[in-house]
């Protein structure tokens, strides 16, 4: 064994000991305080900037939407968005309402905004994953947007919507932006 082998073995031994020490310290911290990663995921899942989850603010929107009063639900949601602009969940609600109202381009833009604000919406491991919902809508709306572009190639809204669709498809496939 030459001197380079001895150095390599020493470095590997030191790294192994440091790793074991870090894992032990982490396990002790979890045993004392609970898992910090779990609480971080919970606070991020609703997409709030202040670290609290208050989905009850959408109760009125849910009620109006269940009654089929989508325009009224949209007005109520816009009031909520004015009071809580950092809530990414508002963009999801807005996208869903725009789907119900038939505003395809707006719904696509809202889903993109929601994903940009909270990437967990397209992360399969996250509790706030809504990938199947987004994928279904994107798949259905892509042909509609492409048809609109074929009829009017200068339509800026349709061009933007198609770019947003491509963005959402990349994110759903696991790509980063």
Can you give a write-up of this model?
- This protein is an all-alpha fold and 177 residues long.
- It has a single domain (35-172), classed as Serine Threonine Protein Phosphatase 5, Tetratricopeptide repeat (Alpha Horseshoe), CATH 1.25.40.
- Helix content is 73%, strand content 0%.
- It has eight helices and no strands.
- The chain has helices at 3-33, 36-45, 59-66, 70-83, 88-101, 104-117, 131-151, 156-172.
- Helix 4 (70-83) packs antiparallel against helix 5 and helix 7 runs antiparallel to helix 8 (156-172).
- The chain is elongated.
- Residues 35-52 have low confidence and may be disordered.
Shape: elongated
**Structural classification:** mainly alpha
Intertermini distance: 48 Å
CATH class: Mainly Alpha
Summarize the structure.
With 177 residues, this protein is mainly α.
List keywords for this structure.
mainly alpha, Serine Threonine Protein Phosphatase 5, Tetratricopeptide repeat, 73% helix, 177 residues
Helix-strand blueprint:
Elements (H helix, E strand, L loop, with lengths): L2 H31 L2 H10 L13 H8 L3 H14 L4 H14 L2 H14 L13 H21 L4 H17 L5
Helix pairs in contact: 3-4, 4-5, 5-6, 6-7, 6-8, 7-8
């Amino acid at each position: 064994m030459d001197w380079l082998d001895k150095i390599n073995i020493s470095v590997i031994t030191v790294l192994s000991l440091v790793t074991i020490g870090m894992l032990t310290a982490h396990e002790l911290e979890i045993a004392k305080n609970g898992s910090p990663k779990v609480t971080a995921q919970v606070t991020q899942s609703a997409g709030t900037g202040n670290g609290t989850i208050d989905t009850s603010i959408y109760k009125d929107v849910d009620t109006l939407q269940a009654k089929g009063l989508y325009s009224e639900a949209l007005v109520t949601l816009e009031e909520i968005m004015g009071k809580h602009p950092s809530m990414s969940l508002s963009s999801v609600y807005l996208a869903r309402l725009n789907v119900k109202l038939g505003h395809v381009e707006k719904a696509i833009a809202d889903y993109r905004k929601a994903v940009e604000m909270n990437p967990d919406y397209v992360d399969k491991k996250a509790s706030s994953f809504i990938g199947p919902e987004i994928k279904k809508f994107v798949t259905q709306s892509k042909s509609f947007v492409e048809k609109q572009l074929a009829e009017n190639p200068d339509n800026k809204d349709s061009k933007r919507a198609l770019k947003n669709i491509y963005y959402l498809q990349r994110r759903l496939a696991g790509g980063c932006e």
